Amino acid sequence: MLPVDLEMFWKDDESAHKDNCFNADSPQVALGIRMSDECVFAELGEEGNPWGYTPREFRIELNKRYNDKAEKIVGKRLLKEEFPTKDETFPKIKQIGEVFGGRYEDNNNSIWLHGSCTTPQELEKVLDKVDKMDIREFMLPPDWESEKKRIFETYGKKPKLLRHVRGPVTLAMSIYGDINLIYLIYDIPDLAKKFSETISDVIIKMGKVMDEEAGYGPGEAPHGFSFADDNCSLLTPEMYELFGYPVLKRVFNYWSPNEKDKRFQHSDSEMAHLLPILSKLNLTGCNFGPTVLVDEIRKYMPRTRINGCLAPFTFMSNDENKIIEEVKRDCIMAKECKGLNLLTAGSINNGSLLTSMRAVMYAIQNYGRY
User: What range(s) does the Uroporphyrinogen decarboxylase (URO-D) domain occupy (predicted)?
Assistant: First the structure.
């Protein structure tokens, strides 16, 4: 294995994460990689579906064995080893795509959102229906109140807040179609604006419902919000400013009004053309595609923590030389500006090995010292 001083690395990494990875006294670039539950199968040579269902007890066993191996290779236990039982799990609530008439399908590979309309006339009917909808009644299942009470009294647990959703462009293209949305923005901009406004209305309404269900009064709930919007890359800057930007701006204004409140955008696609617009949102964190690099992001976002920019497929290839090459590139760029949290520019997939994580650590310790 590549030589890494593990004790020194993790001590320095703790310092590197302070001040949103802009710590003036940080000795090195921060490491954001902590692997994922998907990775246990290839690492341990076990059969299973990385994206499908794994029985709870088997999942705990896999993660413990994985962590035993991780301690030896990277010096830290990475994956959680405690998972809630079915008895302490809240009933499933409806998701934002369902509010707009969509249908989620788990195909044992991903969760796919099927659309609900394809013409402007059908979209108008969907939006009218959403405007009249009682969001709370629609979201929460019939047994919600009794189960919420039972789980709190038995386990002391409250429902989770809603602080992350599918981004507005990806959501809209799932509901209405990618090409359809592009034509809509060009041909009927007023209806496109209505679609955008309704999306932000729904996000805020859904979030407020879950705040109330968790017992928070007005103004009491924790701040912060994040979006995952891969499809934003398909819009021109002008189209994104009309459709996507207003949603993020309104939601961030509501849940992230303070300077240090979380404002995060994930878009693992080629969306560098949108950086000037996104810069107006004062993002505190971002995770963009592997072609959108540190130096380019920094032109527009001088104080945004950059989660990236290692290509996921490079990391999954387990080619240590290529991994070191990309990490070295990012570390050199970060020395001028800090604020880099070394991560993959997208998901960490099954097949990515612990030795690849160690290669990233080696590169940081050798090329990422400030």
Answer: 158-329
Q: Determine contact, residues 159/214, Cβ cutoff 8 Å.
A: yes
pLDDT digits (tens, 9 = 90+) for 254-290: 999 999 999 999 998 999 999 999 999 999 999 999 9
d(CA 239, CA 245): 9
- Starting at the earlier edge strand, list the strands of the sheet with 340-344: 30-31, 340-344, 305-310, 285-288, 263-267, 225-228, 164-166
Rounded distance between C-alpha atoms, residue 53 and residue 222, angstroms: 31
DSSP 160: P
Q: Would you say 26 and 13 are in contact if contact means Cβ atoms under 8 Å apart? A: no
Orientation of helix 245-255 relative to helix 189-213, angle to 10°: 30
| Distance separating alpha carbons of residues 194 and 297, to the nearest angstrom | 31
Q: Can you name the residues that pair with 182 across neighbouring β-strands?
A: none
Identify whether the C-beta of residue 199 lies closer than 8 Å to the C-beta of residue 168: yes
Nearest CA among 333, 316, 315 for reference residue 324: 315
Phi-psi region at 75: left, alpha or beta (left = phi > 0; alpha = psi -120 to 50): left
How does strand 225-228 pair with strand 263-267?
A: parallel
Torsion from C-alpha of 234, 236, 237, 243, nearest 10 degrees: -70
Pairing of strands 103-106, 111-114: antiparallel
Q: Which amino acid is at 88?
A: E
68-102 pLDDT, tens digit per residue, is: 999 999 999 999 999 999 999 999 999 999 999 99
